[in-house]
Amino acid sequence: MEAFGRIDVLVNNAANFYAGYFEEISGAQMRRQIETNLFGPMNVTRAVLPVMRAQRDGHIISLSSIAGLVGQEFCVAYAAAKFGLEGWMESLRFDVEPFGIRTTIVEPGFFRTELLMDASTTWAELSIDDYAERTAATKAAWQSMNGQQAGDPAKLADALLKVAALEQPPLRFVAGADAIPTAEAKGQELIEQARASRALGADLAHTDAT
After folding, report:
1. Does the pLDDT at position 67 exceed 80?
2. Where are the alpha helices (DSSP H) in the chain?
3. Which residue out of 18, 21, 78, 131 is catalytically annotated?
4. In CA terms, which of 9, 50, 137, 197 is 20 to 30 Å from 89?
């Protein structure tokens, strides 16, 4: 504000990754995961919103993940935080739209960022024999992916600049050739699950409800 007098775009991009099976991730680790990946974006957005409201304009872009749409093995903490971010952002849209503030959730696939480096990835601190073999194999697989991800972060950054420049940006932007079919499959799965629920789930109202 001191330098430019306004804030046009906020990009919530900070994240880390607590990897492991649920029982092996301590309660403290789960809280730290959600503190960074969910409360972090909330805190920054809370600081910026008064400025955007006053100028009746702005765009909030939050980096989720395809793991914010689809649960994955070894990713319970990360997915919990990203699913939470999705719900928060989807609801925030209705709070801020009357003030001319737009929102976009970005759902990248695997990009060659620093997320899988030692500084950003924390492994489960507990150890349970029943999970030991799977933990060793899955941890090795994740470690082998570091530096091999197909997505180019520079190209994603360029795409986000284009999204930010749109007068009517998308509410969701699925990023990466790996993420798009995954999101499409999730959408189809939800439709099928809703339809399958109709027989038992549709007629559950009070008899006096209109």
Report:
1. yes
2. 27-34, 40-55, 76-96, 129-145, 153-165, 179-201
3. 78
4. 197
